[in-house]
Design brief:
single chain, 280 residues, alpha/beta, Carbamate kinase, 8-stranded mixed sheet, two-stranded antiparallel sheet, 16 strands, 23% strand
């Protein structure tokens, strides 16, 4: 009876989101811990089977750094961005597109989902230009254009797209683009119903030291002000910026979600209480 009641409570949300697109930035502990990874893959597969169109976007910073060190190359960062020379770009593409992406696809398929791995280069999905605001960082890019036709083709055929944050330049060159930024731009281009950013924190706090100061809901202007005031800082800035980009361009809701909680996606989407911080 408890299981039946749980399903009935989820019914309004299944009806509301059936056929709708939800972009999920997958990362953090949920990507590294095997039990959390399995729970996330189950969540995404279930979402697809009950009629939602989940789309996963991922990076893979720790894996890239590990691969670089194994090859005798020390990672360097400027303003949170990885300095990406030609050799580093080859490693980034090898790790993200060749290893991490296919690993996620395999885990989804093992749960019964039909997943297809893509990079931003496939179908010119993510076109990028060189990022120059922090100096010459090599093949670090910023999103110039999103061409979502291939995503529509896949979701209409019942597949779950899994997208790595490698983009293509004007001359066919590869660019390393922040995965949070890619997720925000993709959600906007697809006019997704939700953008969900999986992180390793409970959400956005007015004062991070005070766990009672979690902000459960805010507007785009509130989010911009928190960045200006320095409340949102370091690694949270690109995540909140991605949420701002998405909502300011037509996405209904964006969420900062604690991916360390098993089945966080299902709790957020299919229950009354939700989790983390919502930007609208």
């Amino acid at each position: 009876m408890n299981q039946a009641e749980t399903l009935i409570q989820a019914l309004p949300y299944i009806k509301e989101y059936a056929g709708k697109t939800i972009v999920i930035k997958y990362g953090g502990h949920a990507m590294l811990d095997e039990s959390l990874k399995a729970a996330t893959m189950q969540d995404v597969t279930l979402m697809r089977y009950v009629g939602l169109n989940p789309i996963l976007v991922h990076g893979g910073g720790p894996e890239i750094s590990e691969a670089m060190q194994r090859m005798g190359k020390e990672p360097q960062f400027v303003g949170g961005l990885r300095v990406t020379d030609e050799e580093t770009m080859e490693i980034v593409e090898m790790v993200l597109t060749g290893k991490t992406n296919k690993n996620i696809v395999a885990h989804l398929n093992a749960q019964g989902g039909q997943a297809v791995g893509l990079s931003g280069k496939d179908g010119s999905l993510i076109q990028a230009t060189k990022e120059t605001t922090k100096g010459d960082l090599g093949f670090v890019g910023r999103v110039a254009q999103v061409n979502p036709a291939i995503i529509h083709t896949l979701t209409e055929a019942g597949y779950i797209p899994v997208i790595s944050s490698v983009a293509i330049g004007e001359g066919g060159e590869s660019y390393n683009v922040n995965a949070d930024t890619v997720a925000g731009a993709l959600a906007a281009a697809l006019q997704a119903t939700k953008l969900i950013m999986m992180t390793d924190v409970e959400g956005i706090f007015q004062d991070f030291a005070d766990k009672d100061s979690l902000i459960s809901e805010m507007t785009v202007s509130d989010a911009r002000q928190l960045i200006t005031d320095g409340v949102v800082e370091r690694g949270m800035i690109p995540k909140v910026d991605a949420c701002i980009t998405a909502v300011a361009n037509g996405v209904k809701r964006a969420h900062i979600l604690d991916g360390r909680l098993p089945h966080a996606l299902l709790i957020e989407i299919f229950t009354d209480q939700g989790l983390g911080t919502m930007i609208k």
